[in-house]
Specification:
The chain is mainly beta. The chain has 5 helices and 44 strands.
Length: 694
């Protein structure tokens, strides 16, 4: 029998075994966790390697294909694709400046042939075979045979020019590799009428001067009910500036129906029009003759454009309707609204006769005033609308004056008020829920400047049932709704008109009474400054400017131009140091990459709202000598349920499109316990060669 002392002398075998088991389990867990961490790190490392392989391979392709020409690319296997290999020439670039070398006749020197192909082995390989120098004497048929031999044998050892062939593997474990040509045709079918933005129809080498762009219907989608072609905008110059397609009409040639400018009431189309070609069968076409290179500004709504007392308006009175630049203001255009200034969406009626016998002074707050900036623009003369409430309102007299303090609210004017007249009378009776317009005497103008603030003073009749007005509650606590001299103080016309109200017994109210709208004639003058256009040329030779406009008698329209090499034109001449052009014509501009124009519009400054006039600028076109270079041709195309498939040529030549390449590679990674995971990395790229086969 064990004693207590025996028990304390050690552990039993059972206890030791149990402790050992716990230790082994803990150790196994730790080792398992450590192995899992190593496995995860291995997965991450392999994934990174795969991603690098994909990006490296695509970068090789991009670099090589940019120095080739699509009309010299051959594909394997022959047919419609997708393809598994391609062969193309690369132009010589001896000095590495990215510009190809030309021979004595001005033709590109094709330096070598490159073949990208798959070699079916274990594991698969993506290989590149190079023939350097290239044998430029091979025919197209021999070139295709050369490609097929490289694919079949995995190298260039058994074909034309084999003595100059070398092959290397870009990477192994090729999983998927497909090459597609980008056809220079466009299927415009869609179940819903809409636009397809930034369509690239193809690329072509363009010289300076005019070119013929031919659009030919080649068929229709099975789901389409027609063959129509619709073009919203076109990009046909290296500068990439969009042109309104309908503005290029009339066509220089066509078959079938005549293309027309179609008004698109949906409002999504640029300029609200499209060029519509209502073709009814295959092979019908139209041709547009357009110059390279120039900037056509027709909508004036590009990002970066700036209006100063001008606005861009869609003029529906023109035929065709058109976007124009005009001076702000004019009949029917609100310059100030009481609800905007007070921040109130609710108009209310005062109690019956609430303002009876009172003098009311409303502060119209301009840009410099506390909580100001509620006038939209300047104006040559002013007109104000006064509104009654649920009962009639009789105005005995009304005046307007400039506020004495442009920044801080005050009831004091800079001068005594200018009388306002209602159809020749200072007094007007306004029935319940009605209004009346008041303005300075005929032939007299009170100009409005949106930076300043103004006081409109109204004396209300003391007669019963003639003192009810609309009002708006002022939401700001920093400014008054209006100032009032109450009827108990018996205000007079002289008191109402006088500049200094500080000495009078006025009160401040949070309500803005009676005065609802302000209109002005057109601003005396204003400016429109265009966005900055990138010509994408280092030294463009600007030649001439043209513009279309309406300039009524007494109004004026002039333009300025400036250029610079800074994208923000920080290096350009200040506008104040540039002479205005009064008519279109030749220009003398510094040959710099970025260009901008400014228009100056002046009104006839007639105080009469019936006879005030503004010029309207419809479009501006600036031209320069285009350089011989590859141009991406495309634009925004209309798609719809009755639209067809069309192709495009320029000067009778097919457009160059390029290739799309899909690449996916894999690697199986095995961990402890036989755990296996397949990692993949894929990439799709569209590559458009930048050279031609000249």
């Amino acid at each position: 029998m064990k004693t207590q002392g025996d028990r304390e002398s050690g552990y039993t075998l059972l206890e030791i075994a149990f402790a050992t088991t716990i230790f082994m389990i803990t150790l196994a867990g730790a080792i398992s966790g450590w192995l899992y961490v190593l496995y995860s790190e291995r997965l991450s490392s392999v994934q990174n390697e795969l991603d690098i392989d994909v990006r490296t391979s695509m970068e090789w392709l991009r670099s090589d294909l940019r120095l080739t020409s699509m009309d010299k690319v051959f594909f394997y296997p022959e047919g419609a694709g997708p393809y598994q290999a391609l062969s193309f020439p690369v132009a010589r670039d001896d000095d590495g400046d990215g510009k190809v070398e030309l021979d004595a006749d001005g033709h590109i020197i094709w330096d070598k042939t490159i073949v990208y192909h798959v070699w079916q082995t274990v594991p698969n390989q993506l290989r590149v075979t190079v023939f350097d120098p290239r044998d430029n004497s091979l025919t197209d048929e021999q070139r295709q045979e050369q490609l097929e031999s490289v694919v079949a044998n995995g190298n260039g050892d058994y074909t034309y020019n084999s003595q100059h062939a070398s092959t290397m593997a870009l990477f192994e474990n090729l999983f998927s590799w497909n090459i597609y040509t980008k056809a220079a045709v466009f299927d415009a079918y869609s179940p819903i009428l809409s636009r397809k933005l930034d369509v690239v129809l193809g690329s072509i080498l363009l010289d300076n001067g005019s070119h013929d762009f031919k659009f030919r219907v080649i068929g229709k989608n099975q789901a389409s009910s027609g063959y129509k072609v619709g073009l919203d905008t076109l990009v046909v110059s290296p500068c990439g500036a969009a042109r309104e397609a309908e503005a290029q009409l009339p066509p220089s040639a066509h078959s079938g129906a005549n293309p027309v400018a179609e008004y698109m009431a949906e409002g999504s189309w640029s300029g609200n029009y499209q060029l519509s070609f209502p073709a009814t069968a295959e092979n019908q076409y139209f041709t547009l003759t357009m110059n390279n290179d120039r900037w056509e500004e027709t909508n004036f709504r590009a990002t970066g454009a700036l209006c100063e007392d001008t606005e861009v308006e869609f003029a529906e009175d023109l035929s065709p309707k058109d976007f124009v630049v005009r001076l702000q203001g004019g009949p029917g255009e609100t310059n100030w609204f009481a609800g905007d200034q007070t921040g109130s969406n609710v108009v209310s009626s005062s109690a019956v006769d609430e303002v009876r016998g009172c003098a009311v002074r409303v502060l119209i707050r301009g840009e410099e005033m506390t909580d100001g900036g509620w006038m939209n623009h300047d104006g040559g003369n002013v007109k104000l609308r006064f509104d009654s409430g649920s009962s009639p309102l009789r105005i005995k007299a009304a005046y307007i004056a400039e506020c004495s303090d442009p920044q801080n609210p005050t009831p004091d004017a800079a001068t005594d008020g200018i009388p306002l007249y209602f159809n020749g009378s200072q007094e007007v009776y306004i029935p319940a829920w009605s209004d009346a317009w008041g303005m300075p005497a005929a032939g007299t103008a009170f100009p409005i400047e949106k930076e300043k603030s103004y006081l409109v003073s109204v004396l209300v009749s003391p007669a019963a049932s003639e003192g009810t007005a609309e009002y708006w509650g002022e939401s700001s606590t920093n400014v008054p709704g209006c100032y009032m001299i109450l009827a108990t103080n018996i205000p007079t016309k002289a008191m109402t008109q006088q500049a200094n109200w500080s000495s009078l017994p006025y009160v401040v109210t949070s309500r803005l009474y009676i005065v609802k709208y302000m209109e002005t004639t057109y601003a005396t003058n204003g400016y429109f400054t265009s966005q900055i256009l990138d010509t994408h040329l280092d030294a463009p030779q600007y030649t001439d400017i043209d513009w279309n406009s309406e300039v009524p008698s007494g109004t004026g329209l002039r333009l300025k131009l400036r250029t610079g090499n800074d994208p923000e034109l920080a290096d350009a001449t200040d506008w104040s140091n540039i002479t205005w052009m009064s008519s279109p014509g030749a220009v003398s501009l510094s040959p710099k990459r970025y260009v901008q124009f400014r228009a100056w519009l002046t009104s006839n400054n007639d105080p009469s709202f019936e006879d005030c006039r503004t010029p309207r600028l419809k479009d501006v076109t600036l031209s320069w000598n285009g350089e011989r270079r590859i141009t991406d041709v495309g634009g925004t195309v209309t798609v719809g349920p009755d639209y067809g498939i069309f192709a495009m040529t320029v000067d009778g030549k097919d457009l160059v499109k390029g290739v799309t390449i899909e690449l996916e590679i894999y690697q199986d990674v095995t961990g402890f316990g036989g755990m296996q995971k397949r990692l993949t990395s894929s990439m799709t790229t569209e590559i458009e060669p930048r050279n031609t086969g000249k």
